């Protein structure tokens, strides 16, 4: 054999050996070095989860009446992938479906559009879920229609009808409570993104429905329960080859609310009456709120907002039309917890507390002229009444502004007047913060507003934030406005020049306005209720709560909410006593007298304060009526307000009286606790009993007749 | 000149029929035989595991395995016959074998006879529900024919003439052309490598070799440039470079294959326990992708054993080629060595994502009757060469 042949054969041998070595090295790399990630990939390939959501927990009122329960509903869904595979993109199918559902094809197709794509409507109408998920397009379809769809499969490719659990609002006594209860919607992308990487079996999945507002959102995790998850092994064609794991569902927990359905319905009706009363006086009366709170623990017994909406429109998703009208009517947000309003004279209790703390004599006489002049500005009393020299108590009863102007003016001067800094004392603002204004109450609802307290500090903050704009405008001189109205432009320019130069300064006028709840101060009706509850209970500001307890579906108690103290009124006991002694006089012989004429104040004294807050731009004042009762042994604080509603006494007062009548069982001048809307005349101390079938035992004869068992009705 | 003698045969007694028979069993390469049997057995187990998942719902999930075992038996018989042939007979009948193979090779073009599998029109129907892949026999025919042409000169010191080399090239080129038309890219690559290896070892001048290899590369480049290769063929050949890019089924297969192998780890999921294998995620894993079954279910240890058995076979083939005392024997053994080596590398390499995906089986392991017969005939031929050495050394 030639050397050349041998050499070539040897080279071939070496080549082949190195090929073998390459294979072994690569095999080692794939299997041993990076094997783990392939094992994960293999698992993802072959494992499928079948997730069945748990039955969502009910929301009960304080006596055990269901406010929100579940029922089954026939839901029509569309598989978009399958629809797309039709020759005409499923247009014919949609129009056929629209016809038997009695809607327009557009109203179906807009639901199929994924949120964020071009031409898609805004959430919650657009589809927020996964692309591979079927989209529900109609709820509560009648059985006949569902049968038609299921029988004529060929006419409705991709369309299917199935039974699904949906929320039911049994509305005992016709309660609405939409802003408290909230609603459900598909899980959002953000929520999914938040828990990305989680492989917990009870994590949120794209198909999940979650609470999107109200208690449904705040207690979503409790109410949702844990889904049943079956882990299946599948082959490449999707055929199940085995069951790897099976986790049973854990039903969602029940919320026992502090709300009393019957009282809530009274409060809701009375809020509407107050609005009607405002409108009858020719005022817009465009929005309002009412809160009833147990002063001893911060439990909200009733809370209503106007305008409101029907919570059941969310079941199965709102239509674009419904959503637009919801937005237009401004009824989605809760005025009680999210609305911010000037408190007006109801705020005088804050100024009084500040005066007491600063050592002002609460029992001396103060001058109540009809107005106070500061340079060119005139600060008036309501309807320019003058009372001469009166006591502070009387000043509260008749709501004399000028007395409080005087006190505020002295405080302002003591703090250095115009030369005061942001750290100079600001007793009224400090007192307001003690009462809980300017900070969230901590209620168990999402999206609460904190409000604002007009103060030195706020003024400086505001100036720091807006200075650049003001100064720029002062230099530019509003050229756009100048073209049409040079005078207005001059005025704006001068204003901004002043603001730019010393907009941080806490002026005398600011101090005066702050003392009577005007100016920058803005509060929520709930904050007001908690403040008056604090006066009533002797100085404790509780965190308001809407849920007494969380119970498991089997009736065991998961968690009992104990009252949480948010702050205490750090003022002399004598100041609180002064307020407690004085405020009943407002009802018996002051600005709150008229609405309570004929009310058995001798048996149930009512402490109150009216307010008629001026709002820049509005011609009509905001009507406030803040109160608690019985004044001698306080139990409940009731606050009602109507924007552009007129005076507190005329518009809100009569409704507050009706609420007290309902609470205490007042009929004419007779008081009979057994006539109270509350069972046994008081909020129940016990928790409701839950039967093995998941329904709650409701008070006999007081369950309002519209109670539905969980999932029992079809 | 380097010469090696099989030392065991030096003391062998002289002829006689019985002795000849004893000499056969004594002189064959036992290591080669045992490695091939072990590998075939391992392969059968893997085929069983891969096919039972597909047939789980059928009456007899073992039916595929049974057919495979029939093929194996047939292959062993053919291998034995091949090992009993002698050079004279072989050299005399090689042109006929070659001719017959060519006829078989073009039969897939005949309508009603040809069968297309995975885009390659490379199979013919035979009675009994079997299909035949003539290109497998063509590999043997090309090896034998080239070896005959390049060893015509008795003088082993001389090099093949230009005419012989050109003839040998033509012998390889004709079937390569036909197989190219049949879309069986993998077999083309193997045949090309075999032809180059045989010509190299035949001792031709280096410039011939350089020209041949350069020409082949140029040919491939021109084919791609002129669009002679269809788009999917190019895609198939290049998908391994970036397997994560989405070019459809090919990349999917490559990806599933690697998931299966990677998931196997050190010791594998256990026989019949591989989720990718039993879940039918890897396509044709009883034949072309059989290595994924080994990777997933037997892990690195089992798959290393499989490669080691192949390595032993290649080592024995190389030794037989090295020791061959004549050019014919050396070229036949070299051809078989190159064939098995490149086919194994291409097949395992594609499942590991380092070679393009082509439809060729793993020698001794994959299901597929024709391939099994062909590789066992190759083992038989190696034994023939070995026995020839032994006799010559006597």
Describe this structure in words.
The complex is a heterodimer of chains A (714) and B (394). Chain A has 714 residues and is of the alpha+beta class. Chain A folds into three domains: 69-168, Alpha-Beta Plaits (2-Layer Sandwich), CATH 3.30.70; 261-343 and 523-548 and 562-681, DD-peptidase/beta-lactamase superfamily (Beta-lactamase, 3-Layer(aba) Sandwich), CATH 3.40.710.10; 345-515, Beta-lactamase (3-Layer(aba) Sandwich), CATH 3.40.710. In chain A, the strands form eight sheets. In chain A, strands 2, 3, 4, 5, 10, 18 and 19 form a seven-stranded mixed sheet that branches. In chain A, strands 12-11-23-22-21 form a five-stranded antiparallel sheet, with helices on both faces. In chain A, helix 4 (91-101) packs across helix 5, helix 11 (261-280) runs antiparallel to helix 23 (648-664) and helix 15 (401-414) packs across helix 20 (508-515). Chain A is globular and about 130 Å long. Chain A starts with a helix and ends in a 43-residue tail after the last strand. Chain B is 67% helix and 4% strand. A three-stranded antiparallel sheet of chain B has the order 1-2-3, with no helix packed on it. The model of chain B is unreliable at 1-14 and 242-247 (pLDDT under 50). The chains are: A alpha+beta (714), B mainly alpha (394). Chains A and B meet through helix 1 and helix 2 of A and helix 7, helix 10, helix 11, helix 12 and helix 13 of B.
Provide keyphrases for this structure.
heterodimer, A: 714 residues, alpha+beta, Alpha-Beta Plaits, Beta-lactamase, 3 domains, seven-stranded mixed sheet, five-stranded antiparallel sheet, 23 helices, 25 strands, globular, disordered C terminus, B: 394 residues, mainly alpha, three-stranded antiparallel sheet, 67% helix, 4% strand, disordered N terminus
In short:
The complex is a heterodimer of chains A (714) and B (394). Chain A contains 23 helices and 25 strands.
Give me the number of helical elements of chain A. 23
* CATH arch. level architecture of the largest domain in chain A: 3-Layer(aba) Sandwich
Averaged pLDDT of chain B, please? 84
| Amino- and carboxy-terminal Cα gap of chain A | 94 Å
User: How many strand segments of chain B?
Assistant: 3
Question: Beta-strand percentage of chain B?
Answer: under 5%
Count of the separate structural domains of chain B = 1
Shape of chain B: globular
The CATH class assignment of the largest domain in chain A is Alpha Beta
Net shape of chain A: globular
Q: Percent helix among the residues of chain B?
A: 55-70%
The biggest beta sheet of chain B is recorded as: 3 strands, antiparallel
For the report, how would you describe the main beta sheet of chain A?
A: 7 strands, mixed
Count up the domains of chain A: 3
- Radius of gyration of chain B (CA) equals 21 Å
Biggest interface, which chains? Answer: A-B, 39 and 56 residues
Run of helices and strands of chain B: HHHHEEEHHHHHHHHHH
CATH superfamily of the largest domain in chain A: DD-peptidase/beta-lactamase superfamily
Number of strands of chain A: 25
Percentage of β-strand residues of chain A = 15-25%
List low-pLDDT spans of chain A: 705-714
């Amino acid at each position: 054999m030639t050397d050349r042949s041998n050499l070539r054969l040897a080279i071939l041998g070496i080549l082949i050996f190195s090929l073998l070595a390459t294979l072994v090295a690569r095999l080692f790399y794939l299997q041993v070095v990076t094997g783990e990630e392939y094992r994960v990939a293999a698992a993802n390939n072959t494992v499928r989860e079948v997730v069945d959501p748990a039955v969502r927990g009910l929301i009960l009122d304080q006596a055990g009446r269901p406010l929100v329960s579940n029922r089954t509903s026939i839901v029509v869904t569309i598989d978009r992938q399958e629809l797309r595979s039709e020759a005409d993109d499923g247009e014919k199918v949609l129009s056929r479906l629209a016809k038997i559902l009695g809607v327009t094809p557009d109203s179906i197709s807009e639901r199929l559009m994924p949120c964020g794509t071009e031409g898609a409507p805004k959430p919650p109408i657009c589809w927020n879920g996964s692309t591979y998920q079927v989209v529900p397009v109609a709820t509560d379809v009648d059985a006949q229609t569902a049968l038609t769809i299921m029988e004529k499969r060929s006419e409705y490719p991709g369309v299917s009808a199935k039974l699904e659990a949906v929320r039911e609002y049994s509305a005992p006594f016709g309660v609405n409570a939409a802003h408290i209860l909230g609603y459900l919607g598909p899980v959002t992308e953000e929520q999914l993104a938040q828990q990305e990487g989680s492989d917990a079996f009870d994590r949120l999945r794209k198909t999940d429905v979650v609470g999107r507002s109200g208690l449904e959102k705040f207690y979503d995790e409790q109410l949702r329960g844990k889904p049943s998850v079956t882990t299946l092994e599948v082959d490449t064609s999707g055929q199940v080859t085995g069951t790897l794991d099976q986790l049973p569902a854990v039903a969602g927990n029940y919320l026992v609310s502090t709300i009393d359905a019957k009282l809530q319905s009274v409060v809701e009706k009375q809020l509407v009456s107050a609005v009607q009363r405002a409108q009858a006086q020719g005022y817009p009366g465009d929005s309002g709120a009412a809160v009833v709170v147990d002063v001893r623990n911060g439990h909200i017994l009733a809370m209503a907002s106007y305008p409101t909406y029907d919570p059941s429109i969310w079941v199965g998703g709102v239509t674009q039309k419904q959503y637009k009208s919801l937005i237009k009517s401004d009824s989605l947000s809760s005025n009680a917890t999210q609305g911010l309003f000037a408190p007006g004279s109801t705020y005088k209790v804050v100024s009084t507390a500040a005066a007491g703390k600063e050592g002002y004599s609460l029992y001396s006489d103060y001058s109540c002229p009809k107005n106070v002049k500061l340079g060119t500005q005139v600060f008036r009393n309501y309807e320019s009444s003058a009372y001469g020299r009166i006591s502070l108590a009387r000043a509260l009863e008749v709501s004399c502004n000028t007395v409080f102007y005087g006190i505020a003016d002295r405080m302002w001067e003591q703090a250095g007047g115009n030369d005061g800094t942001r750290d100079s004392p600001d007793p009224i603002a400090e007192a307001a913060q003690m009462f809980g204004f300017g900070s969230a109450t901590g209620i168990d609802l999402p999206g609460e507003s904190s409000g604002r307290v007009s103060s030195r500090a706020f003024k400086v903050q505001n100036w720091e934030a807006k200075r650049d704009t003001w100064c720029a405008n002062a230099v530019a001189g509003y050229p756009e406005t100048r073209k049409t109205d040079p005078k207005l432009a001059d005025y704006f320019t001068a204003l901004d020049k002043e603001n730019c130069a010393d907009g941080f300064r806490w002026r005398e006028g600011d101090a005066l306005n702050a003392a009577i709840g005007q100016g920058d101060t803005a509060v929520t009706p709930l904050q007001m209720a908690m403040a008056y509850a604090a006066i009533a209970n002797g100085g404790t500001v509780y965190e308001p709560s809407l849920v007494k307890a969380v119970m498991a579906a089997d009736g065991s108690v998961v968690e009992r909410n104990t009252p949480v103290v948010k702050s205490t009124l750090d003022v002399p006991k004598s100041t609180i006593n002064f307020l407690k002694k004085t405020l009943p006089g407002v009802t018996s012989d002051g600005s709150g007298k008229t609405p309570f004429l004929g009310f058995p104040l001798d048996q149930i004294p009512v402490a109150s304060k009216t307010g008629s807050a001026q709002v820049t731009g509005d011609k009509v004042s905001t009507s406030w009526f803040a109160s608690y009762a019985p004044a001698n042994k306080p139990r409940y604080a009731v606050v009602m307000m109507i924007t552009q509603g007129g005076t507190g006494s005329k518009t809100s007062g009569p409704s507050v009286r009706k609420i007290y009548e309902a609470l205490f069982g007042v009929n004419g001048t007779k008081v009979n606790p057994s006539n109270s809307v509350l069972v046994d005349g008081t909020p129940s101390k016990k928790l409701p009993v839950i039967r093995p079938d998941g329904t709650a035992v409701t008070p006999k004869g007081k369950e309002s007749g519209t109670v539905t068992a969980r999932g029992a009705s079809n | 000149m380097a010469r090696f003698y099989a030392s065991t045969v030096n003391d062998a007694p002289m002829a006689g029929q019985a002795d000849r028979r004893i000499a056969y069993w004594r002189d064959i390469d036992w290591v080669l035989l045992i490695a091939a049997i072990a590998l075939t057995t391992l392969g059968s187990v893997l085929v069983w595991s891969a096919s039972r998942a597909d047939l789980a719902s059928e009456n007899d999930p073992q039916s595929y395995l049974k057919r495979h075992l029939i093929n194996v038996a047939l292959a062993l018989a053919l291998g034995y016959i091949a090992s009993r042939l002698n050079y004279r007979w072989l050299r005399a009948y090689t042109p006929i074998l070659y001719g017959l193979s060519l006829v078989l090779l073009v039969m897939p073009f005949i309508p009603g006879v040809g069968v297309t599998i995975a885009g390659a029109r490379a199979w013919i129907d035979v009675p009994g529900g079997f299909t035949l892949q003539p290109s497998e026999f063509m590999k043997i025919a090309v090896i034998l024919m080239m070896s005959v042409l390049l060893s015509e000169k008795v003088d082993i010191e001389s090099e093949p003439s230009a005419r012989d080399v050109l003839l040998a090239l033509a012998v390889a080129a004709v079937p390569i052309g036909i197989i190219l038309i049949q879309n069986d890219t993998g077999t083309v690559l193997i045949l090309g490598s075999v032809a180059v290896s045989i010509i190299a070892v035949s001792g031709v001048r280096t410039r011939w070799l350089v020209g041949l290899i350069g020409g082949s590369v140029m040919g491939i480049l021109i084919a791609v440039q002129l669009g002679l290769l269809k788009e999917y063929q190019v895609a198939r050949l290049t998908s391994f470079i970036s397997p994560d890019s989405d070019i459809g089924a090919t990349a999917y297969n490559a990806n599933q294959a690697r998931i299966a192998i990677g998931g196997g780890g050190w010791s594998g999921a256990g026989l019949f326990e591989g989720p990718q294998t039993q879940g039918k995620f890897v396509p044709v894993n009883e034949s072309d992708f059989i290595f994924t079954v080994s990777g997933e279910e037997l892990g690195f240890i089992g798959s290393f054993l499989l490669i080691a058995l192949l390595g032993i076979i290649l080592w024995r083939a190389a030794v037989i080629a090295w020791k061959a005392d004549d050019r014919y024997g050396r070229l036949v053994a070299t051809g078989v060595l190159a064939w098995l080596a490149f086919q194994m590398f291409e097949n395992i390499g594609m499942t590991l994502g380092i070679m393009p995906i082509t439809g060729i089986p793993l020698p001794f392991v994959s299901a597929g009757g024709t391939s099994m017969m062909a590789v066992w005939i190759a083992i038989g031929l190696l034994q023939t060469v070995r026995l020839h050495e032994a006799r010559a050394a006597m």
